[in-house]
Write a structure and sequence with these properties.
Length: 161
C-alpha cells in the first residue's frame, strides 16, 4: 500500500470521520463554555488540545497496524451496537474510534449543559446507555450542581473603566 492509498483510506474511514466531527463539536462547545465562564477549561486549553491531537495521532498509528495485521475485534462490540452501526469487522483503529466517539459525546453534552443548553435529559439517556456497558462513567459533579467548577457566580466581575 502506498502512502497516498493509506491517506485515502484514513480520510474515508467513517468512524475516523465521526471522531474528527466529535472533536470539532467538543472544541466549539468547550470554547463557548470557556467564554461563558471567563476562563479556560479542559476543552479550550492546552491540555484539551493535546488530548485531541493525541487521539487523532493514535488513530493514524492504529490504522497502520490494521493495514499490517488484520485484527477483527467485532466480538468486543455489543450486538446491539454492531447492528445499529452496521459493522461487519472492527479493526484496532475502529475499536478505539468508537471509544473516542463515546468519550467526546459525553464531553460535548457536558459542555452543552454547562453552556446553559437544555440537554440534561439527553445526558441522562446517554449515561443510562453507557451504564449498560461500563462502570466507569465520567464525573458528573458539574452537571449535578455538586461542584463549583463551571460556576461564575463567585468570580469577580470585570469593572468598566
Amino acid at each position: 500500500m502506498t502512502v497516498m492509498e493509506f491517506i485515502n483510506t484514513a480520510a474515508h474511514n467513517k468512524l475516523i470521520e465521526l471522531v474528527v466531527l466529535a472533536i470539532v463539536f467538543d472544541t466549539i462547545f468547550g470554547v463557548l463554555r470557556a467564554i461563558r465562564e471567563k476562563r479556560f477549561n479542559s476543552c479550550a486549553g492546552i491540555d484539551g488540545a493535546i488530548r485531541k491531537v493525541g487521539m487523532l495521532i493514535s488513530l493514524v498509528f492504529m490504522l497502520a497496524i490494521d493495514q499490517l495485521i488484520k485484527v477483527n475485534l467485532i466480538g468486543f462490540i455489543p450486538e446491539t451496537v454492531r447492528t445499529q452501526l452496521g459493522l461487519d469487522t472492527v479493526g484496532v483503529a475502529e475499536f478505539f474510534a468508537l471509544l473516542y466517539i463515546a468519550y467526546e459525546a459525553v464531553s460535548i453534552l457536558k459542555n452543552m449543559a454547562l453552556c446553559g443548553l437544555p440537554v440534561k435529559k439527553i445526558w441522562e439517556k446517554i449515561r443510562e446507555f453507557l451504564s449498560n456497558y461500563t462502570e466507569e462513567l465520567p464525573d458528573t459533579e458539574e452537571l449535578d450542581g455538586d461542584s463549583t467548577t463551571g460556576s461564575v457566580e463567585d468570580k469577580p466581575q470585570q469593572q468598566e473603566k
